[in-house]
Amino acid sequence: MTASPANASPTAASTTAAISAEGLTKRYGQTLALDDLDLTVEAGEVYGYLGPNGAGKTTTIRLLLGIHKPTAGRAELLGTDAWRDPVRAHRRVAYVAGEPYLWPAMTGAETLEFLARVHGGVDTAYRDELVQRFGLDTKKKVRTLSKGNRQKVQLIAALATRADLLIMDEPTSGLDPLMEMAFRECVTEAKDRGQTVFLSSHILSEVEAVCDRVGILRAGKLVDQGSLAELRHLSTHTIEVTFDGPAPELPPLPGVQVAETGPSVLRFEIAGRDGPVITALAGHQVTSLVSREPSLEEIFLRHYDGHVSR
Amino acid sequence: MSAVSQDARPLSRQSPRAARGPASAVAARVLRGGRVLTATFGYLFAVYSFIQPVGYRGTYPAAADRLAFARDFGGNTGLRLFYGEPHGLLTVAGYSAWRVGGTLAIAAAAFGLVATAQALRGEEDAGRTELVLAGIISRRTAYWSAMAAIGVAALVLWAAEFAGFVAGRLPAAGSAYLALATVSVIPVFAGLGAVASQLAPSRRVALELGGGAVALFLLLRAVADTASGAGWLRWATPLGWAEELRPFTGARPAVLLLPAVASVLLLGTAARLAARRDLGSGLLPARGSAEPRLALLSSPAAQSLRSQRGSLLAWTGCFAVFMFILGLVSGGVSPADIPKNAARQLGKLGTGSIATPSGYLSFVFFLVMLAVSLFACAQVGTARREEAGQQLETLLALPVSRVRWLGGRLLIAAGGIVLISLTSGLLTWAGAVSGGAGITLPQALEAGANCLPVAALFLGLTALAYAVTPRASVAIGYGIVTVTFLWQAVGALLGAPGWLVDLTPFAHVGLVPAQPFRAADAAVMAGLGLAAALAALAAFRRRDLLSA
Hints:
heterodimer, A: about 300 residues, Rossmann fold, Alpha-Beta Plaits, 4-stranded antiparallel β-sheet, 13 strands, elongated, B: about 550 residues, mainly alpha, 24 helices
């Protein structure tokens, strides 16, 4: 839960960090999928890794896990380079893959048992509890399960390991809203138990609900990082003012954008302090004034405004 | 909203691909998906049909030689098992029809089955059929488009076989008819594969059902061709129809009606069945749920063995039955007094001195060698499928090293090769003893074990191809095995220098039990196989996982 500042030196923390990456770069042929990523996730943190499709989220995870080889740079999970020594690195890690590809001919129970034995021991009582909570019919063969139900199998298998580090690639894709709530509870429990969670997602409400810190990835580059409060602070916020009568003409203010959103409503997008706006409003007939912090969605969209395709 | 859909329509009309219509798009997709399979079989058909007339003409130039050959081999029951009943061994054309027709009919059956199961069921298992059927195409049209693509592939094989014969200087009209007789098997087994694809819940089960049918029809033909008075059974098997077409030896084109009617019935039945079932399921009752069975779940290798053990046992069982029958038949092979010169010439045909029981068994085990080599490629194929299906990513994110995973797969493959080879040896002995052929158990087991070094070499090479270039690896493996197997015969016939012929591993095996086991060559092959496997393990550690 130590929300380290965005500009913390990665080397200083690398001995204790759950995840540390330095200059991590990956090229697939001509495509630069990940560009010089520096990333530190402290032990006990829930880290939200945001980005649209194709931004490099899954690439990052595959590099972290040593499933793909970095073109440059290095990555460590709990102090171990997973490319060099995957077995050691993965003992304390559990992974939920982006797509729930499992073995179609095995039942849910057989799959859970297989993954547990290969991982080397799980909390079976907790696993049974998770099966109940997610409402999974473990007698069904994987081939007959929907995508959401296959996703549950993966989630239960990962959570039941009680691994120190959970790496999840869009874990709630395919889950219904009830199951998504169950998932959020599980993440919160994991955090309370001291586990670290690395959550790649593009579902902003989910990240906003469970994550301590957020990184925003765009076209293979980390463009913003910090706690939600920090991101909000650095970002613009909104004041919406309703007037008694038509909205007045106000003089231009530095760092403030004004838009008329109704016949007598003005919206101020403010990059810095509120003072100048309040001063400008003095003497006008204001009936209501609503100040709103930006949602994560707004922060996110601002980073992608006009950049969605490179 | 309406403006959007109005905009979209002229756009799709403008697209040249869309202009061809969804039916031809599906057909083109199926054709493209099966191009490696079609090319491999095309190569086999062309080369095999070229070798036979050229070889025969070279080996038996004079009428007297041919008469002697016909006397000795015409009644050889062991050979009839593979090639069917000969009708005219005195002409190049008649001999070619006998040698090529019977064997390639089996290959044609396998092609029809595999191509159809992949086009129908493989696509469906991968979830792509759902995508296609969500478009503006009916089930019926999609089905017939896929089958039309297989029809085009069958035409390619016909052309390959025809070209082989013509290059071997057989008359064009007769060659066209002989190739037609072979290829007429394809639609029948494509129809069988199509029906199996409706019944089975997955591609694998469809292949197993269809494979069972091929084995059954082959057995029927074997009985018809070898047991006296059972010739009428030939009419009960599509593989026999190809024989009854009698290319070059009193052609009976009316028999073509049989495969034509059978294909139409089978393909039509499959189309009707396809309309009655839900996508992604089979018509045979399949259990969607089961009590957990927790055996063989302790490691990736154990789990792989668990998922394969059914088909592994089925294949071993098939080998056991066939080898027992071949052993039984070998007792009846007459140790004819063939002149030494003719025996040596026969060796050039790639069959060794097959007129003695042990010579015949050597020939049979030469084919077992080919079979286990192909099995080795198939095993690497299952490993690749686990990677392509991304299950491997889940496994390798667990504390499992790549070396352990691939090493386990290779050990299972090696175990399967040993199991099949030694079972073949054991059952051949049992059959031979029952049939009165004088082969001892150690000899039979030695013949089985003699298959191992070659298979180990191909397993290693295919594994190395997998580690370096995963997507092409299985095609490379099958390609190397097929090319090198035929290379010995082709090279000898074309008069290629010895060192060039010696490039193929199949030139370095002793034909046990007729010839002594060649220990040094075997050691080299096994050693190369092991080295390639170790190189594969090292190389596999260095690459990214690649999905389909």
